[in-house]
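Below is our example:
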Amino acid sequence: MSAEYARKPKRKYCQFCKDHTEFIDYKDAQGLRKFMTDRGKIKPRRVTGNCAQHQNAMAMAIKRAREMALLPYTVPVISNKVEGRGRGRG
């Protein structure tokens, strides 16, 4: 077994606990975008490294920002597929 496989992944720490954040503001849209995918979905705890309390508060802030139209619910997907190809046509 090589050293690559024996190495453990780096531990992620909660950014909010590190900064001693007491309140996650839903009006900070740019700050909340870091915790969303490019498609507009909320990233899970295992990706962000947040603790359970701050992940829950962050998810609620994102949902509030979506209701206030500060963040999108979804982002339109642009596909590279060409119409008319595939499925035995032509």
Summary: The CA atoms of residues 13 and 19 lie 11 Å apart. The mean pLDDT is 86.
